[in-house]
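Wed. Picked up where I left off yesterday with ATP-dependent 6-phosphofructokinase. The coffee machine is broken again, so keeping this brief.
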Amino acid sequence: RRRIGVLTAGGDSPGLNAAIRGLGKAAIGRHGMEVIGFRDGIRGLAENRHIPLDSTALSGILTVGGTILGTSRDKPHKMRVGDEVVDMVPTIVENYEKDRLEALVCIGGGGTAKNAQRLAKAGLNIIHLPKTIDNDIAHTDTSFGFSTALGIATDAIDRLHSTAHSHHRIIVVEIMGHKAGWLALGSGIAGGADIILLPEIPYTLESVAASIQARAARGHSFSVVAIAEGARDLVRSADLAAAETLVKGAGTPEAKAAARTHLQTVLASHRSNAFDLAEALEQATGLESRVTVLGYVQRGGTPDAQDRLLGTLLGGAGADLIAEGTFGVTVASQGQAAVPVPLSEVAGNLKTVPLDHPWIAAARAVGTGLGD
Ligand code: F6P
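Structure written out below (tokens, as returned):
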């Protein structure tokens, strides 16, 4: 029997189990394949830990949050093994052959696309399914996980309005999204945040404080500020850009290593962005300020209808692509269709919010401050 493997990698996300189920059911039912699932992402692949995904294992998981397979952020070419960092790609190739796999489906976000591309280059037949609450995968309209997270973050902003309004406070709410502003922008608009700060638009403290003061002058003595975790003020953005340029320009491996260390320091010193901002706003406006970091709440729990649909659709399409022998692709969602896009065009290609995106225009149209 034709045999395929599947793994989930990167951060957990709503819709992962829907995708595993969609893939598995189509592979077994439509194409007569056998499916095994690797535990804990790339680590389980390197350690050859897997479980059979038969119809019993695939049953009753559609609505379950997280991933029944477990996940990790391990990289195949740089995996920590004891005290060492080891290139596990040759071992993975060996396991793939030993397990008699015809294809491996890697379900994950941007990091997983890069790892999947590495494995494809090593000769494995790879299919990548785009999952992430960040919605930052190139060539796919939406990744599964985003819709549920959008709903959760919107609900949180709704609820934060109660306290902001009742106590006449500024509430700074930090929203995930890695280096992209999709989640903060979408939930900020849907939740009616007064100011939305994105990685794509560096903000100035003066502009944010002025928006809050203008609201207060109109009788609204409270404000909800939705800030993406990757958002930075102008000064910090310049610091970061300079540090990134140093990394790119470094000639020798030693210079590159030193530049990377510097970049990490710059990033680390900018981590408590939301807290710094709240403190600065309190000083600038005289309004009491508080911070809420939504964190993992955004990726937890049962997927919404959109993510169940998308996971099922892309999973089934993945099985069909394997059956017809198409490999080395991301199964992208474009319009209503599942479209194979070469992994080489997806890996390492982050989809941030374009400044001319209709969501940006929509936010400005309702008077939302964007910090610029
Ligand atoms: O990619 C999903 C995500 O939740 C990002 O929004 C966030 O930057 C990151 O993962 C957090 O990573 P970790 O799960 O390792 O804390």
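Quick read: The first strand starts at residue 3 and ends at 8.
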